[in-house]
Amino acid sequence: MRHRIGTTRRGLAAAAAVALVTGVALAAGAGTASAQPSSSSPAFDSLTGTSHPDWMASLPDGLGLGALSIPGTHDTLAIHGGLAPWAYEAQEDHGDGAATLDAQLAAGIRAIDIRVRVVNNGTAFAIHHTDVYQNANFDDVLTHAQAFLAAHPGETILMNLHGECDADTAEGGSGTASVGHCADDPASTTTADRIRILQGYLARYPGLFYAPTVTGSSTAAMPQLGQVRGHIVLTTFSGPVGEIYPGYGLTQLTTGNWGSYVENDWTQCDTGTKWSEARTNLAAASADTTGALFTTYLSANCSPFGAGPAAVAGGTWFTTGVNQLALNDLTAGGTQLTRTGVVLMDYPGHALIDAILDRDGVTG
Questions:
Q1: What is the tens place of the pLDDT at every residue in 91-119?
Q2: Domains detected in the chain
Q3: Cross-referenced InterPro entries, in alphabetical order (predicted)?
Q4: pLDDT one-digit tens code per residue, 34-66
Q5: Does the model's pTM come out above 0.90?
Q6: Residue 234 pairs with which residues in a beta bridge?
């Protein structure tokens, strides 16, 4: 079974080619270049304008995760751009080594999307957006998440973990990295290798993950909030071409008709159409009576010949960004969405985070 993963690899490769043709010479694979947005708004690129470090703590233990409205980030640590920063960067840069994650969690983000490359001769995970290292490692993510949960024990963090490198020979690639395509170390890395590496992290961080989501032999039923406070919930663990690794994650999001709960049309960069698709999934989440956890991506990327992540999320002179369209809807009068499920965003703004949390009865 395969998940659709929102990474425009061919588009990123083309974007890098455009950069070279136009004389932009930046270090491929290194997280040094930046194209952070030059403007912000309540809907876009302004998450530090709000603060919700303990918003889950006041909610009843008996609430299922599917009953919540949960703000999240797509490609959570994509803050560096390699050859084509406008095509790679997707989040506000609040520092390397997962310091950016700290800022997101403090603002109220509780669903994160972690993309990893196998490094150090098959012994560790580094955080990547395709071939660009994001100046953070999986240890950074877990250390920062653990510290946050220790300081805020009423909270939980939902994590989607994805193997990023599709240039591996086991994935049908050449075994050599190129722009828009990373290769693991070694490039012969297999599913079993990624699972082995994750198991090593689980051993080094005992009790950090909600145990039923990381058994390696079975997936977890949808938990109640009281069961997962103080833990990371692994929602999915998937490979470079979207294959789902069995024995990990939540049953509803990894088996059967999981796709009916997820909207991730990541190549739809007409912001009106993208928002219409997202709104349909949000409406399904709002109307659901089964306790299912819906996941809606507001993100898309059509670089280099279309809009990049910031243009889709924040808009241009000629278009309204998806983030603003979402905020308009969530704060409009009349019939409203009562629940959103997980909403994964690029460059979320403070008012958009607040509007999602308003569905949980969280204010301020």
A1: 999 999 999 999 999 999 999 999 999 99
A2: 9-358 (3.20.20.190)
A3: PI-PLC_domain, PLC-like_Pdiesterase_TIM-brl, PLipase_C_PInositol-sp_X_dom, TAT_signal
A4: 679 989 999 999 999 999 999 999 999 999 999
A5: yes
A6: 159
